[in-house]
Design brief:
This protein is mostly helical and 99 residues long. The chain contains six helices and no strands. It is elongated, with a radius of gyration of 17 Å.
């Protein structure tokens, strides 16, 4: 039995719903604590921009997670979006033949 494919979840949604909402913290307040422009966090939680390595390092330090946690979420999201967009093109690729 195949496992269900979960829909893509933007890291900004996780940041917003799992971190900022419970802390009752605004994106602007987080940006100030991370020493980044307010718009960077606002755009991230609005799911309009990706997590960058710099942002991942800062989020990891502040929330006591790992930078890989944030980057892996971004990579997973990017792969799901790209797989959907290129589904037919990828399906036409033939696997290499075994030697």
């Amino acid at each position: 039995m195949a496992l269900p494919v979960l829909p893509p979840v933007h890291p900004g949604e996780i940041l917003r719903e799992e971190y900022l909402v419970p802390l009752k913290m605004s994106p602007g307040a987080l940006a100030k604590r991370l020493n980044v422009p307010r718009t960077r966090i606002e755009r991230l939680v609005a799911e309009k921009t990706p997590v960058t390595p710099d942002t991942a390092l800062r989020l990891a330090k502040f929330f006591e997670t790992s930078p890989a946690f944030w980057m892996n979420m971004q990579t997973s999201y990017d792969l799901k979006i790209e797989a959907k967009a290129k589904k037919q093109e990828i399906a036409r690729i033939k696997a290499r033949e075994a030697a």
